[in-house]
């Protein structure tokens, strides 16, 4: 096993209750585990390498419970994108996998990972379910067999000889970022225009001699998209202003632009606010968002247009 084997843990205390007035059931103290860079032929105990035992608790305060823990193939709705069902659930074993728990008692097992020494497994990502459940054949209450089986399922995912799908996506995004020109700006960040009339389209360049400038500081060209958006939870208008009731009142021209390297291009803004009493003598903030036109990276640049309307 490689020393750089990595584990990502999402802690949980799961509980599932069987139907009935006594609310009997199980709880499980374990984690959904994701292992990376597991070598073909690896053989190890998860408790030993990360101090993670598989613990099952009988929540019933009156009756004992016979427990079985199985490694099973996941259902389709349990699969995480990028993973495939494990070809053989016996690669992941729980020892011991059967025990009897008294009322409110708990037991601990080891999770053993045994991966076949097959180089064809390298680069693949697998998922298995560890299913802890009562044994309906043995669990009895006052001599009456249980008809409803209580069970809990924990996900166990691992990647053979490679990083996991999520880590690979992050690495891919970082490599993509290194090839993308992000050396641009839109100026000014905050733009103020006063006494905007209502009831007609107002070209701010024509009426107020004002516009935005897109600056490409790189030698490489860049294609950008410009949109007027409603709100952003991370952005608030400055004191005295509120978000525009309708972002469609502002349009940006052009909406998409190719900016050559080491150049400056102009954006023209048009505002068209309905002529209604409730919109007169108001102070609004419009939010313009700039993104890469091809959406190859979720990169955003925000500009604020502050306007006041005529009384």
Molecular shape:
elongated
Number of domains: 2
First-to-last CA distance: 74 Å
> How many strand elements?
24
The CATH architecture of the largest domain can be given as Sandwich
Would you identify the CATH H-level superfamily of the largest domain?
Immunoglobulins
State the secondary-structure class: mainly beta
> How large, in whole angstroms, is the Cα Rg?
30 Å
Write a compact overview of the structure shown:
The chain has 311 residues and is mainly β.
Describe the structure.
It contains three helices and 24 strands. By secondary structure, the protein is mainly β. The strands form four sheets. Strands 1, 2, 3, 4, 5, 6, 7, 8, 9, 10 and 13 form an eleven-stranded mixed β-sheet that branches. The longest helix is centred in the middle third of the chain and has 15 residues. It is elongated. It starts with 5 loop residues before the first strand and ends with a strand.
